[in-house]
Amino acid sequence: MAGAHFSPHLPVKKLAANLTFQVLFAIALGVLVGALFPKLGAALKPVADTFVNLVKMLIAPIIFFTVVLGIAGMGSLKKVGRVGGKALLYFEAVTTLALAIGIGVANLTRPGAGLQAVASAVLRDAKKTEEAAKFTAQAGELNWAEFIAHIVPANVVDAFAKGDILQVLLFAILFGLALNRLGDYAQPLVKTFDRLSHVLFGVLALVMKLAPLGAFGGMAFTIGKYGLAALLPLGKLMLVVYATMFLFIFGVLNLVLRYYRLRLGPYLGFIKEEILLVLGTSSSESALPRMIDKMERYGCSRSVAGLVIPTGYSFNLDGTSIYLSIAVIFLAQAFNIPLSLGQQLSLIAVLVVTSKGAAGVTGSGFIVLASTLAATKTIPVESVALLLGVDRFMSEARAITNVIGNGVAALVIAKSEGEFDEARHQLALQGRSVPEALPPVPVAPPLAKTKKL
Predict the structure, then answer these.
(1) Domain that holds residue 179
(2) Which of 135, 389, 401, 424, CA to CA, is 20 to 30 A from 184?
(3) How far apart are CA 185 and CA 141, in angstroms?
């Protein structure tokens, strides 16, 4: 046959069409462009920003419909509260553990030791001090009371327009609870929302075809603007941060999954495209909509995935917690400021609060770090200038750990609630899970007849 002559080339074509290969190739190309043509690489930031914005424009509506459909299909309102409560308890336990691990590792490895001269020189650099001032100015604006008040939107349309995840999530929960209470009377609207949800995921599939372009632009910008040379003075800090996050994923999260009779390797393989996407764009938000879909295809019920994943993006930032705790101890060592055990425990307590207070804010890692230093009044807030050169290189590790941790959280809650579909899980492991093959979303049974007004 004519096609048989070209069969040796078919695997190559299949590989080139694979999204994972495309993103990996784009990242490698971005590193080369940024290293060889720094000015060109730095100018490619709009390419990455445009792709991330394409994804962000879908986040709010996808979260809304996913959460509403999940709660409407959950049945008992007590179950909704139980799932949410379990998720928050899990988030607090794991992020507090991450903070403690980060501080412990930083004390053992002492990445800031011997950098006193470099630290002093950085503070004398007026340009860098000015750049750091942008973050320190915002540090005083963050407090827990304002964060709680901000969750409630004054205007629902404004919440969607700004893409404020927490505000959209709150409105979606209330909307879903109302639909749940209406029972069969609300089913026509539930079915309409289900169709709209499928359309939005269809749009997302189209946008994801541009993922390699976004990854290329993001990596070229990072290397081109900051340069590989920026890594040398603070190389030990980067090594400690990356190694700690690696150990957290393959140690703590691996043990958590094993307890629930799940394996880390297959899970990471299933979300490899999302991990690579985050690596290229340095943004965990770029993977948020797909993680909801992926966790549902991996076995989680829609209700659990829809509630846990979006909430985790504000309350379950494992990677950010590790980075913040190591960064605080690193700065104390670099500026030769001894911290007692009591002071370090108080830092963990403050970080538990501040790590949530900047959720959804651009540059949140730096703002949280500055606000923590401002709250403890032990280390100069201006010291964050020392991290400006390498922060971008560590943002990938933070974002990847956050994404992996949120997926694990969804699996844990789904398993503990009996909301895990083993048959669907096995299909996913065999690579046979596709959105079109999913069964219809379960419709909530009528809880009570609602009188027509």
Answers:
(1) 28-430
(2) 424
(3) 45
